[in-house]
């Protein structure tokens, strides 16, 4: 009985989500490609706005910019390129030795680590023009005709920041350094580095053309992402020490051994002769490139710039990879207290990493995609459809840490948004894709799945427009939720018990009425029951349900009468 009532209640529910007014084919009344958002159908223009990624990250906590003392800085998530922090990121900067990221990228794209490079007279001549105070891997100590591996040159390029290594690789790949620089600028354009121009392969600032070798933090971020995607380069950039394999006599190191070089990135490695730099170590750091210009005076500078530090640094917490970019760190060295030139860049990078890892997280959205089903009325029939989640694949997105934690604990739930293909008619078959279901967070679409027809649910009479549920704008929209059963089932049980109670009370009243009538009838026919009727006279009229009793004439002793 209970389930009969429940079924009756369910059948009385307004039918099917996304039904058009009047219950007819919706293609005549709904906008093309309409979208259901929280129970509403919106137009195509509103749909485009609803599915665009909003300024989601604007709600993240702000970083204290007073900690960022460099002229320009930026923090990005490496996989997506999402900007998490920026300071003057589009202002022109001088990239210094971070230029070598482009040199290394072109080398990786054109050479193998095992390739051998033969030192030519042209290469040695170019090296001779470099200042002795510039960073070198000392290739000038080798003779013409010496062969050195691309692997050794790349390690010298990154760890030793060898300007001579950059020149040798440039000439080896392009024939001349000028031609290689043309390729550098062409590759920059391919990466979208619109505000970048290179004039050499190493980033040395020269008085005659140093001002023409420039970039921006935003452009260098694009280059850093491209370089980080090359496994060989990532491995080299994160190496603390390396010993040359194909040549010898380049490096004299009594502490570590001859021909052993150390990484100049103090976030990754502390130099053996400067243990005081250990305070800059960051266990999350994974590599990238440093840069430092000393005593330069660009045209826009009023005074000589004693120290101009640059840093492109990467870090990972095992779940998310970040890249911090710092340019124009003019903090001065203090040799007596063991403070290197442009020391602030290391602290700035660590602060940027603290901010990124403390406020953002990578999340696999696929694990929070839940099942979805809906109904659609097509003329006199109702079709059932459900989201096809059979092809759900890992889909990582960068979220605010609070949202990532909310999804994990269940306090945050992805919103479901339905897009229906139009028109939909009775020709739809089971298995046809009739739309898509999008899963959104704060209006941002993070995942979508096809909406597949599962078959005709039932046949219903066409609805009267005057009786259509809804206000006319939502098209009689009703989406049944499972929690409704918590109301329907108790209500059904209560109504059932109430009906049983009413029926039982009615039966009792009828029994009592019949019993009372029988008592009155017996009293009427009992001899002597009424004083005004002689005891020897019996009524001749009795109720229909009482069988008449044949009169008996005898003397009755009323004093001993018992009922």
Cross-sheet strand order for the largest sheet: 2-1-18-19-20-16-15
Radius of gyration: 44 Å
Query: What ranges have pLDDT less than 50 throughout 5 or more consecutive residues?
Result: 9-52, 457-478, 558-563
User: What is the strand content?
Assistant: 15-25%
Approximate helicity band:
25-40%
Which sheet architecture does the biggest sheet show? 7 strands, antiparallel
Instruction: Provide a count of the helices.
Output: 12
Domain Peptidase S11 D-alanyl-D-alanine carboxypeptidase A N-terminal: 64-329
Signal peptide: 1-19
Region (Disordered): 41-71
Protein name: D-alanyl-D-alanine carboxypeptidase
